[in-house]
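#lab-general

N.A. 3:47 PM
ok so I finally got the sequence cleaned up, no stray characters, all 301 residues accounted for. can someone with queue access submit it? mine expired

B.Y. 3:52 PM
send it over

N.A. 3:53 PM
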Amino acid sequence: MRSDPATSAAPMRGLGGPLRSSEPVRAAPAPSAAALLLEDAADLLVVHLDFRAALRTCERAWQGLAEEPAGASCLEVKCSLCVVGIQALAEMDRWQEVLSWVLRCYQVPEKLPPKVLELCVLLYSKMREPGAVLDTVSAWLQDAGNQGLPEYRALAELHLRRVLLPLGCLSEAEELVAGSAAFSEEQRLDALQAISTARQQQKHGQSGSEETQKLNQEGSSFHKFLSLLTLLRQLWDSAVSHFFALPFRKSLLAALLLCLLVVRFDPASPASLPFLYKLAQIFHRIRKAVTSPLCWLPVHD
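B.Y. 4:20 PM
back already:
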């Protein structure tokens, strides 16, 4: 059976009619060396879980990009290499090096791609270190060339929620909301409400810390007072035990001295002579009783 010529020629027709043998076939452009290395790095990261090798592959691809002409495809490859490198560093628990590693590639914060900057903010915010990206994101947002990007509004709101408010930079947050045209009226009201709530929490936190500090000081003073009472009690117990350990004569002498100190009378005063006379008689009788021959024991040869 013979085929219809019109039917057989249909697959050969393109938008401009049938393809002639004299027209050259247009081949797709070959991927660059950096793009091939990007595929290798992604394969090492996702499939083989070799994060160190993936990071080294990204750095080799960077060196290759420096020799290629700048273009849109080159910028996309460079951004994708940064994303793979950030993930590799985070998997190796080297997240502190992410920002410096990215800036080594782009030199200045204003040139960072929005996707890379967003990943940095999310990473450092998750690790409770938002202050590390404060200056970088602020410089990016203040750059006039970045303010016209479609991602600017999302990054500004992310910077407000994840960096400024957790750090307590409320004045900077108000300046960002009031001076940026990226926020809609509804977003601006929501942001100002969040700033007002954060300021109230900050004031309550300061008053609470002051009360806690005052209570700690009072508790410390009471503890010192109890320690002083304990020390005085130990000294008194030691003095009493030492007093009872003295011989009888020394104990009486110590009692006399203590009486003189407590009563505070003048021994040379005539009013104190009867008391001293009676006290002397008591000492004399005690001495006579102690040294009497009746108390001596017989001595045998």
